[in-house]
Amino acid sequence: MPNAPNIVDLLLTPNSTRPGGNRPGTPLSPQGVTVHRTGDPGATARNIRNYFDTIRPGNESSAHYVVDGTGEIIRCIPETEVAWHAGPAANQRDIGIETCEPLTGAAYESTVWLVADIHRRMGWQASLGLTIRPHSFYSPTDRPEDPFSWIRYQAGQSDSGALYLPAPFLATVEASLMPFKDVPSSHWAAVAIELVANKGLMQGYADGTFRPDNPISRAELAVVLQRLLVLLKQA
Ligand SMILES: [Zn+2]
């Protein structure tokens, strides 16, 4: 994994100080991520961010993040506020990411990193399934190919955006979130192991493994329980 990209804050002008903008200030409790493409080949993240910051009453569009081919990630709207990106139902639930085109190289890497970073910060477990959808999930008719040209919305499928995103993208995000290389999300105890590792209750070995079938001693169990008690005290 290359160095983590920086997130650059270039927040949009709030509507409260400039009515008619694209940052309404409505509170958001994020429950997922929607990935978009700009539909504007060659545009940079700054171009798109500045487009979002222009006033278009009745034709609002914005997103929380824009990623471009330099790998730059611009934050336009805080994750605690609603953005105008995928229709009212999606806007009330998801963090929106706009990906500049082509979505290859650094743009792809930064998008993978950002989606994983959001999952980590929100405490969404990869072993429970990634909470990510393309725009086409919400808007199959006007964005049939959004965000990647090889994705197609398939009517009648269950409510799982993961079905509509390319498998290599999802696999890369998932692998970067799973804490141990010998515990894939398909392991029967993956949900528990991911959780106790992320909470700092149990650690792996220096080689990045967890060795899930190793026995545990009474002393080691006592250490885990002590960490749990400290954690509960803090809660
Ligand atoms: Zn879109």
Which short descriptors sum up this protein?
binds zinc ion; 235 residues; 10% strand; elongated; six-stranded mixed sheet; Lysozyme-like; alpha/beta
Number of spatially distinct domains: 2
Name the ligand types.
zinc ion
Q: Which bin fits the share of residues in helices?
A: 25-40%
Strand content: 5-15%
Structural class given helices, strands, pairing? Answer: alpha/beta
**Main β-sheet, in a few words?**
6 strands, mixed
Instruction: Write down the CATH class of the largest domain.
Output: Alpha Beta
Give me the strand/helix succession. Answer: EEHEEHEHEHHHH
Low-confidence stretches: 147-164
| Mean pLDDT metric | 86
| Oligomeric grouping of the chains | single chain
Terminal CA distance reads 33 Å
Q: Kindly report the name of the CATH homologous superfamily of the largest domain.
A: Peptidoglycan recognition protein-like
* Total strands: 6
User: What is the CATH fold-level name of the largest domain?
Assistant: Lysozyme-like
Which CATH architecture of the largest domain?
A: 3-Layer(aba) Sandwich
Number of helices: 7
Short description:
By secondary structure, the chain is an alpha/beta fold. The chain has helices at residues 45-52, 88-91, 105-122, 135-138, 167-177, 190-198, 218-234, and strands at 7-9, 32-37, 65-67, 73-75, 94-99, 132-134. A six-stranded mixed sheet has the order 1-4-3-5-2-6, sandwiched between helices.
Describe the fold and architecture.
With 235 residues, this protein is of the alpha/beta class. The chain folds into 2 domains: 7-177, Lysozyme-like; 190-234, no CATH class. It contains 7 helices and 6 strands, in the order ββαββαβαβαααα. A 6-stranded mixed sheet has the order 1-4-3-5-2-6, sandwiched between helices. Helix 3 (105-122) crosses helix 5. It starts with 6 loop residues before the first strand and ends with a helix. The site of zinc ion (ZN) has 4 residues, from loops. Zinc ion binds next to loops.
